Amino acid sequence: MLKFCKIAMLITTKYFEIDKLKLECGETLSPITLAFETYGELNSQKNNAILLFHALTGDAHAAGKHNSSDTKTGWYDKFIGPNKALDTNKYFIICSNILGGCAGSTGPSSINKLTNKPYGLNFPFITIKDMIKGQYKLVESFGIEKLHACIGGSLGAMQALEWMITYPESSNSCIIMASAPYQSPQNIALHEVGRRAIMNDINWNKGNYYDSIEKPNNGLSIARMIAHISYLSDQSMHLKFGRKIQGKEELNFELHNEFEVESYLNYQGKAFIKRFDANSYLYITRAVDYFDYSGDKLQKALNKNSCKYLIISFSSDWLYPEYQSIQIVNALQSLNLSVFYNRIESVYGHDAFLLEDEKLTPVLQGFLEHI
Amino acid sequence: MLKFCKIAMLITTKYFEIDKLKLECGETLSPITLAFETYGELNSQKNNAILLFHALTGDAHAAGKHNSSDTKTGWYDKFIGPNKALDTNKYFIICSNILGGCAGSTGPSSINKLTNKPYGLNFPFITIKDMIKGQYKLVESFGIEKLHACIGGSLGAMQALEWMITYPESSNSCIIMASAPYQSPQNIALHEVGRRAIMNDINWNKGNYYDSIEKPNNGLSIARMIAHISYLSDQSMHLKFGRKIQGKEELNFELHNEFEVESYLNYQGKAFIKRFDANSYLYITRAVDYFDYSGDKLQKALNKNSCKYLIISFSSDWLYPEYQSIQIVNALQSLNLSVFYNRIESVYGHDAFLLEDEKLTPVLQGFLEHI
After folding, report:
1. pLDDT of residue B248
2. Which of B125, B219, B226 is the closest to A253 by Cβ?
3. Which residues between 26 and 65 in chain B have a beta carbon less than 8 angstroms from any beta carbon of chain A?
4. Which residues on chain B are in Cβ contact (under 8 Å) with A292?
5. Which residues, in sequence order, are bridge partners of residue B104?
6. Taking the alpha carbons of B143, B17, B169, B152 in that order, is the dihedral positive or negative?
7. B237 touches chain A (CB under 8 A)
8. Is the bond preceding residue B362 a cis peptide, omega within 30 degrees?
9. Closest Cα to residue B232, out of B261, B203, B204?
10. Active site annotation includes B350
11. Which of A187, A328, B219, B239 has the greatest number of beta carbons closer than 10 A?
């Protein structure tokens, strides 16, 4: 049985077409493609669907492998499969690449049908509400009237919250992990630095680099390094790297890659540029910056409904600190909505929602079974 | 009297020459200039001197004005002057620009006498021990055998600690604010991102930009923005900016400067490039990265002496979190040295040691008077 579980599901990415979407910025985007994957089977009552939203740089490939020769599985594979938290024996899980992304869904690197060239900076500004409006049409296309659950971490959780605000009767439950009701000024600032790093890359060329051999890879890599620091925690970096020197015993007196933590971050930056588009990074970070249910806005935006909420925060997450999860809990409780709050002790910082499978799995399973 | 206090001291920067210095990296630097300023008068017994060390991007100009028309006073003016924490009626305060700096002391932008060109990347690697060795010669030149106190915040405090380790009998007291016994991996990582931003600037040109009209200003500005975020706190950014939009009521859908926090950071970045050299930033951040009295190294390095220590941490400082100050306290206590620890509640994050004059002044005054 254990051996069986370790055989990854073979999954094919599919594509959903939307004729057009009126965006919050006022513009209309047409046409739109959403890349998506599904895991498990939709039952005949069509009431076992879970919509999983990905975070900033995720994609539709949440679980399994595309080919048996793939060395990696999808980004949430620890949580999706038979007997896992999102149990494919019970549930039908849908995950789509967000609007503005670069992994099959329409984004700045997609061809603008009006010019036959990539959009680049002609891509319209998008918001999290725009993202979930596209995904609503995808869910509708399966004939699903009400989800069993919607779930996400970080930006994924912001999408889940926006989903419940926009379509309050469309899910039985909503799981919010490592997230916030609004983007804090500190996080806007971190995003801004990342964007500046991209736009200061000589190869960015005001977003017109798709025809060039040279891409703004160094800038995008720096943006990723900044973000990556914010995904870890002071404690996890002590445990993982400490002050270890890369491959030697004594200092070499170099400006770069002297310490293991530097080599690791540079590796992460270089790995990122292979799979991500710099303009997508600009647009998606901006969409997160615009997310704003601060103050009493969340309470006012949420509708009374029978949805059950589960809010999960992680002790060492300094990107979306626990007090922001508690602000969501308070807004839900003030409306007398059903809300469970779970605070998980973790050293992994913001990334804990991706890594703490042993702690998260029983919490998610219990919640999903007793809705 | 109050009016009198508000008249800034008029101060002239002076320069101290050192023939040569053998550096920790193995190289010898020759000659060396240290820019310095003094405030107050050295008494006849020469026992009222306080050596003040500046932080990462500070300079020798700690107090007063150079000209009465100057709009700004020195970086620690709130704390230096008659009846202030470092009381010029009682003490003779010395502050010098660190080795590697760009405000009068020898650094990468200085002329290499061997080539008659700026050092650039031919400048040797420096450490915090190298910095204080130069300053020791400066203090000696006044005929001072023992300081009343050495004091600093952040990198300034690392210099103070290194001073006590290297010259254990040379100060009656030592004040360490907002600092740490070693640079954490998180902070090495933040520095590395800043360095990458500079070195990815097309105008950096491997450090050879001194003859060019175009300087690596954008890269240096980005490095400053990253650092500036780490000097503030989540809470202070909420209080100072929140999610306020720059100069308007509604979103404009722009990639930059939409939020006040972005405009502020960009302003800080642009102000910084007027006063700082990009190569100096590379070398000084690296010197801080190398600072390492982690584990039991501090206890082993400190010598038993009669110096009285005051360690001050600030509650919202996440760059040098309180546990790192406590590690210093523990090392001192384990050697049965005299140590006072003061934890100051502040929302200002790491910058609190520059801003919390009302809370800090009585603590510093009391300590300095009762040594």
Report:
1. 80
2. B125
3. none
4. 243
5. none
6. positive
7. yes
8. no
9. B261
10. yes
11. B219
Catalytic residue among B61, B316, B350, B351: B350
Q: B317 an active-site residue? A: yes
Find the closest chain A residue to B127 by CA distance. Answer: A253
Scan for tokens 């008494």, then name that residue. Answer: B43
Task: Give the DSSP letter string of B249-294.
Answer: SS----SSS-BHHHHHHHHHHHHHHTT--HHHHHHHHHHHHT-B-T
State the residue for tokens 């009585």. B362
Assembly ipTM: 0.96
Can you list the pairs that B362-365 forms with residues at least 24 positions away whose Cβ atoms lie under 8 Å? Answer: B363/B310, B363/B312, B364/B79, B364/B85, B364/B86, B364/B151, B364/B175, B364/B310, B365/B85, B365/B87
For residue range A41-98, list pLDDT tens digits in order: 999 999 999 999 999 999 999 999 999 999 999 999 999 999 999 999 999 999 999 9
Residue A85 near chain B (CB below 8 Å): no
Statement: the pTM of the whole predicted model exceeds 0.95: yes
Per-residue pLDDT, B219: 98
Interval A301-349: pLDDT, tens: 998 888 999 999 999 999 999 999 999 999 999 999 999 999 999 999 9
Domains for chain B: give ranges and CATH numbers: 2-183+292-369 (3.40.50.1820), 187-286 (1.10.1740.110)
A206 in contact with B, Cβ within 8 Å: no
In angstroms, the Cα distances linking B274 to A18, A39, A199, B33, B270 are: 51, 56, 21, 22, 7
A295 touches chain B (CB under 8 A): no
Establish how many alpha carbons lie within 13 A of residue B317's alpha carbon, considering only the half-sphere containing its beta carbon: 28
3-state SS string for A100-112: CCCCCCCCCCCEE
* Smallest Cα distance from B45 to chain A, Å: 42
What single letter denotes the amino acid at residue B326?
I
**Which residues, at least 6 apart from B16, have a Cβ–Cβ distance to it below 8 Å?**
B33, B34, B35, B36, B96, B137, B138, B141
* Residue A126 near chain B (CB below 8 Å): no
Task: Determine which of A125, A205, A253 to mutate to test the interface with B (most B C-beta atoms within 10 Å).
Answer: A253
How crowded is the C-beta side of A113, counted as CA atoms within 13 Å?
8
Query: How does B100-109 read in b/e, with b if 16+ C-beta sit within 10 Å?
Result: bbbbbbbbbb
In degrees and rounded to multiples of 5, residue B264 shows phi and psi of -60, -45
